[in-house]
Amino acid sequence: MDPAILSRMQFAFTISYHIIFPTITIGLSVYLAVMEGMWLKTKKIEYLQQVKFWLKPFAITFGMGVVSGVVLSYQFGTNFSRFSEVVGPILSPLLAYEVLTAFFLEAGFLGIMLFGWNRVSPKIHFMATVVVCVGTLMSAFWILAANSWMHTPTGYIFNEGRFEAGNWFEVIFNPSFPYRYFHMVIASLLSASLIVAGINAWYLKRNQHRTFAKVGFSFAMWSLLLLAPVQILLGDFHGLNVAEHQPVKLAAMEGIWENEQGAPLRLFAVPDGESEKNDFEIAIPKLASLIITHSLDGEITGLKSVDKADRPPVATVFYSFRVMLALGGLMLLLALSGAILRAKKRLYSSRLLHAFAFYMTPAGIIATLAGWFVVEVGRQPWLVQGLVRTEDVVSILPAENIMLTLGLFVVVYGLLFSVYLYFIRKLIHQGPPSMEEYSSDNAAADNSVNSPLFNPVDGLDSTTGSK
Q1: What is the mean pLDDT of the chain?
Q2: How many helices (H) and strands (E) in the chain?
Q3: Residue 279 in 3-state DSSP?
Q4: Chain centroid to CA 423
Q5: 440: pLDDT confidence band, cut at 50, 70 and 90?
């Protein structure tokens, strides 16, 4: 097999594996900061119990993200050494800023967050939690700035075979960066909300830890109701940006071969790259033009506007895009179902809703991966859009060596992920920690479950969750 294809497969595997953990970490860090802040403000132990429970999954996930992320930087040097030489003056400083301003913050205050209970004051501990949360968002900022520059490069000068920064503001705030950054942050918040909702729905379904589960489930359902529509709106803005700066990627997303006015939205099709057409197409007339151009007769550029050599793998982009859209629709359906059942006071008793939420637990992560495939595969055959082709910057390595390391990555990462899931499952089965020691210090906690925001059922014991 072509060494260039193997190097791409290896990087695709390792970065897909890595992206799972920062996505969860960003979302959970916000959840922890909000819950700890609410505990400090209200002194209600249910919020502190949420922090104590979700802190361990957060720490394990953070560690997995760090370990899997280190490998990526080495792969730039081993598998794409020419790429490092060509764009190093731009990408290296951005990645260094991420380490200096974000990772050091996270790593420095994570220790206080994990082990600072009873060693620092509650306010100092809350500050550490907020700093870690800010660190995860800053980390995403620099990574997305670097990645977005590869999609919509601006602010550079080409000097002696290398791209250098002519204007750092334009490099960082390139045309696609704002859409991609906020789309990713909201995706992380949605992923964490679905995980919190799913685990607590499982407790409710099994009639375990009900008071704890009600607080987390209610908050997660409110989050989904707020975030899902916002993500759809951001997705629309992002799509308009792709249409302007990467029309060929958009054509692959929509399965459009010819330039079309009044293009239909293909709900399903089998794209055939050889014959340059779709088979078994099911489409809604004019809807794609309406969504992308906001006009029923708007024109969308087709794949045939460029040579075959300049087109991305259409099928991967086309199907990944639909997986992301379908899961986004299910998230909105779950959020609306929760809102309706909350109004009917059945949020904590509907077994159907709890089953729906439970099976949606990994949906945010799967949608994020699908979206990542759309973005990265859709950029091919370019590493830097329109400037640097992937095949021109891969390292010259024996194919068998790349296959061997790819196989090792699959085995080692598979084992690591199994261990990760084992500990997460163990924590979930253990359930939330007992808060008896805090109950005696917080008499107000007795009334905490009557919060109109979270609205748990009256008459539940806060420790056992039994009626």
Answers
A1: 89
A2: 15, 8
A3: strand
A4: 22
A5: low
**How large a percentage of the chain has pLDDT more than 70?**
93
Give how far the C-alpha of residue 349 lies from the chain's centroid of Cα atoms, to the nearest Å: 30
Bridge partner list, 388:
384
Residue 40 neighbours by CB distance under 10 Å: 14
C-alpha 187/C-alpha 30 separation (Å) is: 13
Structure tokens at 54: 């979700």
Beta strand pairing status for 156-159 and 162-165?
antiparallel
Over residues 15-31, the pLDDT tens digits come to: 999 999 999 999 999 99
390-432 tens-digit pLDDT: 989 888 888 898 899 999 999 999 999 999 999 999 999 999 9
Residue reference for tokens 């006071």: 345
Cα atoms found within 13 Å of the Cα of residue 99, Cβ hemisphere only: 10
Query: How many Å apart are CA 26 and CA 135, to the nearest integer?
Result: 9
What are the tokens at 302? 């087709």
CA-closest candidate to residue 55, choices 424, 451, 456: 424
Tell me phi and psi for residue 201, to 5 degrees.
-65, -35
In this structure, is the dihedral angle defined by the CA atoms of residues 411, 413, 414 and 419, taken in order, positive or negative?
positive
Average pLDDT over residues 233-242: 92
CB 203 within 8 A of CB 431: yes
Give the model confidence (pLDDT) of 70-104 as tens digits: 888 788 888 888 888 899 899 999 988 888 888 78
Q: Look up tokens 């799972």; give the residue.
A: 20
Model pTM score:
0.90
Instruction: Match 């529509």 to its residue by tokens.
Output: 229
Cβ–Cβ under 8 Å, residues 98 and 107: no
User: What is the distance of C-alpha 162 from the center of its chain?
Assistant: 32
Q: Is 42 exposed, middle or buried (0-12, 13-18, 19+ CB in 10 A)?
A: middle
Phi, psi of 462 (to 5 degrees): -75, -15
Q: Which residues pair with 77 in a beta bridge?
A: none
Phi first, then psi: what are they for 308, rounded to 5°?
-55, -35
- Alpha helix (H) ranges present in 104-209? 104-115, 122-151, 168-172, 177-205
Cα separation, 100 vs 139, whole angstroms: 10
Of 466, 444, 467, 465, which is closest to residue 215 (Cα–Cα)?
465
Residue bearing tokens 């370019």:
382
Q: List CB contacts of 304: < 8 A, sequence separation 6 or more.
A: 257, 258, 259, 276
- Asked if omega into 57 is within 30° of 0 (cis), the reply is no
